[in-house]
Fold these 2 entries.
Entry 1:
Amino acid sequence: MAKCGSCHALARANTKGIIGPNLDEAFRQSLAEGAGRSTIRGVVEGQVLNPNPEGAMPKNLAGGATLRDIAAYVEQVAARGGQDSGLLATAVAPAGAGKPAVETGGKLSVPASPTGQLAYVTNKATATPGPVTVEMPNTSGVSHNIAVQQGSNGPVLGASSFITKGSASVKVTLKPGTYTFFCQVPGHRQAGMEGTLTVK
């Protein structure tokens, strides 16, 4: 579900992607008009197996038992509230739930989530004043970058290139204070791909 959640919102899974359709809203009207939940399963399987060639969903994203599990899950939870329990409750980690990143020797590493979730592995970082190279390793296959902004809505001090695999970095000179790091891909910051960098 983490890969699906990088593009789709689904309340029960706590995913907030905005690139693809909101899965709760996509099926809410059909369910209200009497469509059976098994219809959802068929639509999800069909869309994953045969994505729109002009859309954002990659081909061969899932298949076999994995696809059947994904479709069955969406069938059961789309347009329904509540919270998952057991393994499903931890299938998609909260955005930025990892340990804070700490600058060492002028370098600060803030990896993108390897699952494809629209998040960095942490939403907190600390650094000392002076020149800092902020590095963003990315193994997800989803395009991301990292930008550093003064405060939460001040000027952007610098931004890395956009990458889907590898590592990108940006060098900034920081004074004591609070900064925000975030992804500039449209929709990613709004989905939660941001964090606070404290310099002291």
Note: The first strand starts at residue 9 and ends at 10.
Entry 2:
Amino acid sequence: MGTFTKSFGAAGGYIAGNKTLIDRLRVRGHLGPYGEAMTPPVLTQIMASMASIMGVAAPSLATPLPSLSASGTSRSLTVGHPGPASPSLLPPWLSLTPALASGQEGRERLRRLAFNSRYLHGGLIKLGFITYGHLASPVVPLLIFNPGKMNMLHRMMLDRATPIVVVVVAYPATPLVTGRVRFCVSASHTKEDVDCVLRACDEIGDVLDLKHGIGKRERWTLERIMASAVELVGTDDS
């Protein structure tokens, strides 16, 4: 199960499974009878995003790989992942620029996104905050705990000289005492953008008393974090 919103800049999501599972979800799932099909522009966005991430192989390089049919007999199936996608998997009217079709731009964006995600996660932890989620996730939840501080943090972020928009998530979406704000980074953000967020969190965190990180981790100053970004991103001890 996955999403097409944050990950592909489109809308909706997907569930992959065997035919028995999918048929049951279509018949018994609450959204099945009332759901609408994805619109053509959304599908085009998803296909273009996936193709740009994987790259598109030249027609002569598409390699049929053995697979099994539903009956268990061997058949030939062109598999586009991992590796460049086969052109046969894309509609003929979908046109990508050379940089996208080669996968070069997709790989570069993934590298930038991974850096931004790990840098923000690691920087917040080193400052003393408690975060949830995987270090490589571009959605970074920062725990607030006290519901009364959530709107205050949101307003203080928005009122800065460089306004920062955060998503406040509270009860009933989360348990009452684990309210949080979420930062959503993208490949378009620069290190300077992440530095700006860390500086704001450092200052506001002191005012609202939000730095309650526990454990034996050493706290770093903001200046050390910004100067050691590459070191911080390259370790799993953040």
Note: DSSP finds eight helices and seven strands in the chain.
